[in-house]
Amino acid sequence: LMNGRDGVSERNEDVWRFILSNVRQPDHMTGDLHAQMASGEVGSQRLGALCDTHDLDDIEALADEIIGRSEAATRESIRGLPAGTYDASAILDLADGSKVDIVCSIQVDPDAGEILVDYDGSSAASRWGINVVKNYTHAYTTFTVRSVLNPDIPNNHGSLAPIKLEAPEGSIVNAVIPQPGTARHVVGMFLPNALLKALAQIRPEQSMAEGSGAVWTMQVNGNYPDGSPFITAMFTYAGGVGARATKPGLDACSYPTGVSAVPIEVVEASAPIRFRQKALRMDSGGVGAQVGGRGQTIEFTVDTESPWQLNAVTSRLSDAPQGLFGGEPGEPGSFKVNGDSVETQARITLSGDDVVRLELPGGGGYGAPV
After folding, report:
1. CA-CA distance, 54 to 89, in Å (whole number)?
2. How many CB atoms lie within 10 A of CB 311?
3. Alpha-carbon Rg for the chain in angstroms
4. Alpha-carbon torsion angle 249, 365, 100, 194, nearest 10
5. 243 in the same domain as 186
């Protein structure tokens, strides 16, 4: 995409035109690419300034030192854990009524300073595009383990090396071609719900109850009165996070991802969508010594006289986020059009007078209610 000449980066026009000729929203993509190019340029400048300030030709030795120290610190933290095998599972349900079992076993080896996470027993790959490849599973697994074990150690190859992963090939957590994975976040973001229950047996004070899991994603497309098309980028909403030992769960916030919701004003500016409600879902968090985070309610229509399509990815509509150590479950979610539950994962066609209502799940409570 970029050519470098005499220390100056220049855009490769042929590659630029090729990319923009093969996307549905070239105007949006132009902005994304410019932002990526600018951030890369700024990063390069700052790295150069760092090396100049400390009279370094490169950062290889510095990087090796950080990685080595990180691995040693991670192994030392694992050596302080009790040896054993800790099993857990969690159930993810989808709009069509199908269910996904995530089964995990965390095996702690203090002598080697290593942890093995094994997903044997998890569901087979789904016909829907929610399957996860192994490296994606690895990323969410190591993030969750390190969140409980040693969050202050830098995230790099060294701190990840002592955390091993096994997952059956062809399963929903180790998908292979041609198993689809476009909406892989649905399972990827759900993995911590099972992992945290296993980790709670090791570090109860650092773990937390089940949360809503993956963010719900919406995409709307249709045509303006003049026939020109409109299509939104994916806009996302989060439910409640599970409660912790000393704190309530976060409201309308996603874990483990830090993705934020697109402001409704931005969504309305990109297409003829009209939001009728956006509010916290009161009393949706599970009761406990610490209450689970609240979900949220979203209601919208599309101001058009022509049919339009909604691509919605939802979950946790029947099996609520479970509490931990006596905490009660949060409320399950709800996905309705005109008051009727949607019972398909497929894209649906709607009309201008249809009303979409989303009620996102609340997080589970932690500890028995006082």
Report:
1. 50
2. 17
3. 23
4. 80
5. no
- Separation between Cα atoms, residue 72 and residue 81, nearest integer Å: 15
Same domain, 200 and 91: yes
* Tally of domains within the chain: 3
Pure H helices in the chain: 13-20, 26-53, 60-79, 134-149, 157-160, 185-188, 191-199, 264-270
Looking at residue 51, its pLDDT comes to 95
CA distance 239 to 300: 17
Q: Would you state the torsion angle of the CA atoms of residues 142, 145, 147, 150, taken in this order, to the nearest 10 degrees?
A: -100
Q: Indicate whether 2 pLDDT > 90.
A: no
**In terms of residue numbers, what domain contains 150?**
81-206
8 A C-beta contact, residue 248 and residue 280: no
Report the greatest alpha carbon distance in the chain. 70
Query: Is the pLDDT assigned to residue 170 strictly greater than 80?
Result: yes
Distances (CA, A) of 235 to 197, 217, 264: 30, 6, 9
The residues facing 302 across adjacent strands are: 273
Tokens of 215: 């963010």
β-strands 114-118, 163-166: how paired? parallel
217 with 301, same domain: the answer is yes
Question: Same structural domain for residues 348 and 212?
Answer: yes
Question: So what's the pLDDT on residue 231?
Answer: 87
Tokens 């500016």, residue located: 269
User: Of 179, 206, 233, which marks where a domain is finished?
Assistant: 206
Specify whether 343 is located in the same domain as 217. Answer: yes
Euclidean distance between CA atoms 315 and 317, whole angstroms = 6
**C-alpha to C-alpha distance for 64 and 214, rounded to whole angstroms:** 35
Tell me the pLDDT tens digit for each residue of 213-254.
989 999 999 999 998 888 887 789 999 999 999 999 999 998
Cα dihedral across residues 316, 345, 103, 134: positive or negative: negative
CA 94 to chain centre: 16
Place of tokens 């996302």: 236
Q: Output the CA torsion sign for 160, 162, 163, 169.
A: positive
Q: Tens digits of per-residue pLDDT, 176-219?
A: 999 999 999 999 999 999 999 999 999 999 999 999 998 999 99
The answer on 257 and 155 residing in a single domain is no
